[in-house]
Design goal:
Helix content is 31%, strand content 22%. The protein is an alpha/beta fold. β7 and β8 form a beta hairpin. α2 packs antiparallel against α4. It is globular, with a radius of gyration of 16 Å.
Amino acid sequence: MTEAEKNVVGVVLAGGLGRRMGGGDKFLRPVGGVTLLERVIERARPQVKDLLLNVNGDPARLPPPGLDVRADVVEGFAGPLAGVLTGMAWATERHPDARWLATFAADTPFFPGDLVARLLEPIAAGGAPLACAASDGRTHPVFGLWPVALMDDLRAALEGGERKIDRFTGRHGVVSVAFDAVPFDPFFNVNTADDLARAEAVAGAAP
């Protein structure tokens, strides 16, 4: 881990309602005998100084994740931005020296192991204050790197009704970092039963 990466903490965003999977906690669905959440934690944890799980509802329903668990700091299932704000508030409390918050989606089990390092590069070079991942011509704003110093601005935006990540990051300046989508898109996420079957195939083929 580089010196810059030591200033990064992370949050796994698992606060959604999972409607397309019939409700419930889709991140607890198994892929190759390992839950989506376990796969995401395994990939995210080595990339950051510390990791938070953002999930709403009773945390007692979860198997012990081995990390802090916090619900959204704003009410009403306000979407991923609420999870980002929750991560920033946790970082400010637990790691006041942290400069950036990396965000990971709990339904995307194959994201790159060098995600944070790659997102840091344009920020360190002064390209923009925020960075997000891209692949196959699409951006993935939930996989981003955020200055913790934007916490108050983000809270005000959420209180003002903002729910779109792209609109918020666009106001502050964001650069996208492209990742290879061959042999599969590493940001492929599981929303349906068909997606789950595809994830099983990817997990079985992966070295």
